[in-house]
Amino acid sequence: MSKRLFDAAMRPTVNRVKLAIGRAVLRLVSDAGVLQRLQIEGLKDELFWADRIQNYGFYSNPPPGADVAVVFQGGDRGAGVAVGVDHRDYRPKNLKTGEAMMADMFGKFIYMQDDGTIVIKATKIRLEAAMVEGTGEIKDRCDSDGKTMSGMRASHNTHKHPENGGAGPTDVPTEPM
């Protein structure tokens, strides 16, 4: 077989391989189904839907404009699977080697730092648990005049104040905290 005939015979296979992996831009998210579906724009204004495979336990609904890495089964542009999504505008930058962060586009984050500190930035943290335990201190207003829970407990347990009518100080609380 001549090289020209071989090249002509291989052209469809080569084209499918070239189309098997791509980069696209997110336009729309459908998050109601079993898998999240992304409407993405690929080559030359090519618009199509792709299933999104997310890491178990870590789910998100990325904003439009995000970059999408997509794999097309057998090079079929109608059978896309999004395997990675990132948004340049909201990606945390300058993490140290080994650090990790979960972040959203609104400025909230959970940041696991290299020194063992976990920083959480949020307007509110709600825990739904039957018990919350800690092996160390809990301190409020830690950047100013905060008090520890054990300090507040000690203050409460030894607290006395003048009694109404000037009869002397009260006894310490009968039920310690």
Question: Explain this structure to me?
Answer:
The chain is of the alpha+beta class. It is 14% helix and 27% strand. A five-stranded mixed β-barrel has the order 1-2-3-5-4. Strands 6-7-8 form a three-stranded antiparallel beta sheet, with no helix packed on it. β2 (36-41) and β3 form a beta hairpin. The radius of gyration is 29 Å and the shape is rod-shaped.
What Rg, in angstroms, do the CA atoms define? 29 Å
Q: State the order of secondary-structure elements, H for helix, E for strand.
A: HEEEEEEEEH
The DSSP helix count reads 2
Structural class assignment: alpha+beta
Main sheet specs: 5 strands, mixed, barrel
The chain-level mean pLDDT equals 91
The oligomeric state is single chain
Strand order of the largest sheet: 1-2-3-5-4
Helix content range of the residues, please? 10-25%
Uncertain segments are none
The 3D shape can be described as: rod-shaped
Question: What share of the residues does DSSP label as strand, in percent?
Answer: 25-35%
Q: What's the total number of strands?
A: 8
Distance from N terminus to C terminus (CA atoms, Å) equals 91 Å
